[in-house]
Amino acid sequence: MQTIISIAVDALTYGMALFVICIGLSLTMGLMRLVNLAHGAFAMIGGYIASYAARDLGLWYGFAVLLAILGTVLIAIPLERFLFRRIYGAPQLTQVLMTIGITFCIIGITNYLFGPTLKTIPLPRGLAEPVDIGFRTIAAHRLFVLVCGIVVAGGLWSLIERTAFGVKLRAAVDNAAMTSALGVRTEVVYAVSFALAVGLGALGGVIGAEFLPVEPYYALRYMVTFLVVVSVGGAGSIPGAVLACLLLGAVDTTGRYLMPDFGNFFFYAAVILIVCLFPRGLLGRA
Amino acid sequence: MSDLFRVEGLSKQFGGLAVSRDISLSLPEGERLALIGPNGAGKTTFVNLVTGQLKPSAGRVFLNGQDVTGLGAVQRVRRGLVRTFQVTRLFSEMTPEEHVTLTILQREGRANRVFARFRGDSAVGGEVEGILATLGLLDVARRRVGEIAYGQQRLLEIAIALALKPKVLLLDEPAAGVPSTDTPRIERALEQLPPSLAVLMIEHDMDLVFRFARRVVVLAAGEVIFQGLPAEVAADDRVREAYLGSYAHARRVA
Amino acid sequence: MQTLAQTQPVAMPQPKRAWWRDIVGVALIAAVGLAGYWLFPDNLALLTRVIAMALLALSIDLLVGYCGIATLGQAALFGAGAYAAGIACVNGITEPFTLVLIGAVAGSLAGLVMGVVMLRASHGLPQLVLSIAIVQLFHEAANKASAWTGGSDGLAGLSPAALFGVFEFDLWGRTAYLFGLGLLLTVFIVLKFVVRSPFGMLCRGIKEDPVRVGAMGAFVFPVLLKMFMISGSVAGIGGALAAISTQVVGLDSVSFELSANALVMLVLGGIGTLYGALVGTVIFMGFEHVVSSINPFHWMTLVGVLLIVMVLFAPRGLTGLMETYTGLKLGKRGGRA
């Protein structure tokens, strides 16, 4: 029983961390039709900045998280303007190649600047201690990740479904030409959504560092994981992403607990099964 | 039962919406039938039902007396039910000659051969030349399709269809998008179709319909509202209602 | 009745002769290969590796360039060939040509599996994800079946018999290199015939418009599946060559990274011409050898910049640039994949 609960808690928090990282990619892929394999690279940049701020400069954790998000977005803006904007609507292979290229550059440059070592992000005391939640204790950090995931999911959903910006974004996605004819500046809408996606990726990179450690090949190592999660959930669907993250988080965690020798075997077997049965993802848009 | 092609009570619903309702028609050998109807009448859906791209909710499709309702699109083509596309679907990097050669090889079951030469067979080459000559495409036979005129691309659509030696040919708006200077060429191509071939043409251009068709079927709101001679169409009340109704009921402006 | 043929008495222009270009092309590959043998006698192991990778890039070109199927999992087929040849070799089958044949068969069987799974999804992204998932699954399987594959330590101790019973696989890799060059030339010539065959034309048609191919009365799925098997056998031959020449098979031969690298090489050279795969592999691996010996991260940055530049300014690859500037057409290609 104890094992089952541990697995469940780990699976849930791992899934939520995955969700915070991946939801930005899901948005770019579903709403902007951009297969951005460099998404993990932005999460990695976030992790590096947070590590530098919290560990090397000794700043407060919350401030480091904020700095990571802002810094990553700041780096992403010129990239969006000069590189990504040219491949919106391009064939998928073109997008894949370009974003792999960007990933390679980011990995190379980051490691040139920060050195090829694992970067830790020290947690503040409040998050490092276990918390009693009645029937058992749980690391406060995990609780924090859970709350982050729920807040991100809720916030994004209301942003897309309830605000004027969300309306513009959905319109731009359905018919870019018509939307811009109606006076909406679609490049701005795209740029803002891109920044949002990157910012969420950076946040995810920082808070998920406990599960996916920030290291030189982070962007490449988890590139596939993120892409797979989004495809399984269905690009552009928030509930789909939640479902996919929880499901794959559970498969992965359970597999590792019960049959550690098999590594990612069950994860990818599940992926093949789901993608074959639901080519557009569990809750994908038609 | 001598009909080459027959559909019986063909219906299709998307959700609760019926886009085709109980359509029945038949084509004997050598028939020239035109299917017309206002926009949104369900012509495209009908084409997709007939060719096997869509499964009907009810009704059956017969080819040569055989029930082909359960067969997919490819099987229907292999049995002689061939279509052209409303918007040309050609391989822009290939030449007309390559299109027709590939089609003939495919008809003869040789297109899947790995260790064979594409242009090796002189009999095939002769047939290709014959088909391209009939359609007046010889001079562009070795140009990339992306480089030839749209009218010529439309003719190539017909050439590909003919290369399959069809029994029933479904022409989906063969003159759509062709500049009016080129329509006579399309028309001549249609006149030269093999006499025994049963042709079902979907077309907007009424001049073309009147010159080409021996029989006309009018589709409106998913239903057949008229079947008869071209000369009778214009006088039919239901057809007038279908085409002009929306204008008659609309309030006058100024 | 007057026919159009009578109104336009124009004869069909005769086909341009393309075969002499292919002979020149093959001769050029052989010449470059032999030049490599004389010029870099100390780097023959690397050059053999280049040939194995060129075979992998060729196999990807068959799918991406001729069928329009993007894949990031081709190393699954390469690895299948490498492990099959390696396992056979360790278990006593040491004749080099037999090993290559075993690699080809294993590769094409893996291609069959991959094709069946990937073709269940009808369009780009799910296919790409499936290809990745398959190569990862193969990777895990190879890792797990350590009794057969040696797991993460790799499969070592391959000692292939002498080529034709005469030429031993020597320490300098001379035999392995010439063997590889011979294989590459043979495969290249065969593939030239394959892409020109009716089947090859049908694949090109499918790449441009599968619906049109269906309306021509051809089933798309079996054609693509067949190409997956051909592609798999080419990748498998590459894997077997790698196994024979290095005499070890590591887990990296079934990895996403290898797949992605090979795709990058192909794109660098140019998709849709068989020459592109060769040119791209040689240039990529040559640079990799020089730059990454200085600093592997500089190499990553460089590859990244290269990819971005290619996508923005030379989407048809180096061979595409060459065609543009020299007017020499290397082969038919479909539009951009």
Question: What's the SSE blueprint?
Answer:
The complex is a heterotrimer of chains A (286), B (254) and C (337).
Chain A: H1 2-30, H2 39-56, H3 61-82, H4 92-114, H5 125-128, E1 130-132, E2 137-139, H6 140-162, H7 164-174, H8 176-181, H9 186-207, H10 218-221, H11 223-233, H12 238-258, H13 265-277
Antiparallel strand pairs in A: 1-2
Chain B: E1 5-14, E2 17-27, E3 32-36, H1 43-51, E4 58-63, E5 66-67, H2 73-78, E6 81-83, H3 96-107, H4 122-134, H5 150-163, E7 168-172, H6 183-191, E8 198-202, H7 206-212, E9 215-220, E10 223-228, H8 230-233, H9 237-249
Parallel strand pairs in B: 3-8, 3-9, 6-7, 7-8
Antiparallel strand pairs in B: 1-2, 1-4, 4-5, 9-10
Chain C: H1 4-7, H2 19-39, H3 44-67, H4 75-90, H5 96-118, H6 124-144, H7 146-149, H8 174-196, H9 198-208, H10 210-215, H11 220-246, H12 256-269, H13 274-292, H14 296-313, H15 317-326
Helix pairs in contact in C: 2-8, 3-8, 3-11, 3-12, 3-13, 4-5, 4-6, 4-11, 5-11, 8-11, 9-11, 12-13, 12-15, 13-14, 13-15
Describe the structure.
The complex is a heterotrimer of chains A (286), B (254) and C (337). In chain A, 72% of the residues lie in helices and 2% in strands. The longest helix of chain A has 29 residues, at 2-30. In chain A, strands 1-2 form a two-stranded antiparallel sheet. Chain A has 286 residues and is an all-alpha fold. In chain A, strand 1 and strand 2 (137-139) form a beta hairpin. Chain B is of the alpha/beta class. Chain B has one domain (5-249): P-loop containing nucleotide triphosphate hydrolases (Rossmann fold). In chain B, the strands form two sheets. Chain B has a six-stranded mixed β-sheet, with helices on both faces. Chain B has a four-stranded antiparallel β-sheet with strand order 2-1-4-5, with helices on one face. Chain B is globular. The mean pLDDT of chain B is 87. Chain C has helices spanning 4-7, 19-39, 44-67, 75-90, 96-118, 124-144, 146-149, 174-196, 198-208, 210-215, 220-246, 256-269, 274-292, 296-313, 317-326. Residues 1-10 and 332-337 of chain C have low confidence and may be disordered. At the A-C interface, helix 4, helix 11 and helix 13 of A face helix 6, helix 12 and helix 14 of C.
